[in-house]
């Protein structure tokens, strides 16, 4: 679905490259979390995927189309982006207008447009707010509307750049469960830039960037097994990993390193019943 081949990128008037000869392939239907310290290039990578940044050299392909200044508009119909701050994405005076905007640009026929607006608002559970002003919604509701605007375009790939970082735990949970549903039911490819390693553990694959290179690329469990090595790339092991490390230090055997709180609780419960 996405291929980066020998991609180098340098911002205009900057001396150093963010990426040099980066190679990466993301398959259709994968859920990939991109993690890494501040400045490691996560957002730049997200922008390279939808043509907001164009490779200085090398090739970025989305569904076999090479992203260039000519093709980027067409590519954006296949890749939906959701950013950290939904305020920057609102253009309409009502929620429905806002969701309609991208469809109007694509000249989608009116009856199809109405159907898609209703369907995407329902997917994010925001139907009741259809005629509300976006600026009066809560942060979590705004992010769900931003997600609906992307869903209405029926993209094959959704890129979320720190999309849940400004949300409270409930708002975060709601957005993540919508993503999980889309991924499972519609086989949408999800690329999620995040600082939250608990969130990254939900993905099928974790890519860790460090100084413009891929430091780790693999399953979330293998990633968390890195434990204290995560400090080398500016990351803090999540709570479940720290508990696992403490248990190991005290020679308490746990069957496998827990990925989520639920697994940790199951494991602790098992240990408790054994005593
Ligand atoms: N518009 C820009 N012009 C020049 N340099 C930039 C620009 N945007 C980012 N950079 C630089 O590119 C590098 C990568 O930045 P990027 O925003 O991709 O990192 P990031 O991993 O997303 O960071 P964060 O976690 O802080 O959001 C950094 O050194 C940053 O200073």
Molecular structure report:
The chain is an alpha/beta fold and 275 residues long. The protein has one domain: 3-Layer(aba) Sandwich (Rossmann fold), CATH 3.40.50.300. It is 37% helix and 20% strand. The chain has ten helices and ten strands. The strands form two sheets. It has a six-stranded mixed β-sheet, with helices on both faces. A four-stranded antiparallel β-sheet has the order 2-1-4-5, with no helix packed on it. α4 packs across α5 (139-152) and α5 packs parallel to α6. The N and C termini lie far apart (50 Å). The model has no long low-confidence stretch (mean pLDDT 90). It binds adenosine-5'-triphosphate. Residues 11, 14, 18, 36, 38-44 line the site of adenosine-5'-triphosphate (ATP). Adenosine-5'-triphosphate (ATP) binds at residues 11, 14, 18, 36, 38-44.
Q: In terms of quaternary structure, what is this? A: single chain
Largest sheet: 6 strands, mixed
**What ligands does this structure carry?**
adenosine-5'-triphosphate
Question: N- to C-terminal separation?
Answer: 50 Å
Instruction: Enter the CATH topology name.
Output: Rossmann fold
Radius of gyration: 20 Å
CATH-defined architecture = 3-Layer(aba) Sandwich
Quick structural gist:
Belongs to the ABC transporter superfamily. GO terms for molecular function: ATP binding; hydrolase activity. The protein is an alpha/beta fold and 275 residues long.
């Amino acid at each position: 679905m996405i291929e980066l081949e020998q991609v180098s990128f340098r911002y205009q008037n900057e001396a150093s490259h963010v990426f040099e000869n980066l190679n990466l392939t993301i398959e259709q239907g994968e859920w990939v979390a991109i993690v890494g310290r501040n400045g490691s290039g996560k957002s730049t990578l997200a922008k390279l995927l939808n043509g907001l940044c164009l490779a200085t050299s090398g090739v970025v392909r989305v569904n076999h189309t090479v992203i260039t200044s000519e093709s980027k508009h067409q590519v954006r119909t296949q890749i939906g982006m959701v950013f950290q701050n939904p305020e920057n994405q609102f253009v309409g005076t009502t929620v429905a207008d806002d969701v309609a905007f991208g469809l109007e640009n694509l000249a989608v026929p009116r009856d199809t447009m109405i159907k898609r607006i209703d369907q995407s608002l329902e997917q994010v559970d925001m139907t009741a707010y259809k005629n509300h002003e976006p600026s009066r919604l809560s942060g979590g509701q705004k992010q769900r509307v931003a997600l609906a605007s992307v869903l209405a375009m029926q993209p094959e790939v959704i890129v979320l750049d720190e999309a849940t970082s400004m949300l409270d735990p409930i708002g975060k949970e709601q957005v993540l469960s919508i993503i999980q549903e889309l991924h499972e039911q519609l086989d949408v490819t999800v690329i999620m830039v995040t600082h939250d390693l608990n969130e990254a553990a939900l993905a099928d694959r974790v890519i860790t960037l460090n100084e413009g290179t891929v430091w780790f690329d693999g399953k979330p469990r293998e990633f968390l097994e890195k434990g204290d090595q995560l400090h080398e790339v500016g990351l803090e092991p999540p709570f479940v990993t720290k508990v696992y490390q403490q248990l190991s230090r005290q020679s308490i055997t746990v069957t496998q390193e827990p990925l989520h709180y639920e697994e940790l609780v199951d494991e602790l419960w098992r240990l408790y019943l054994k005593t």
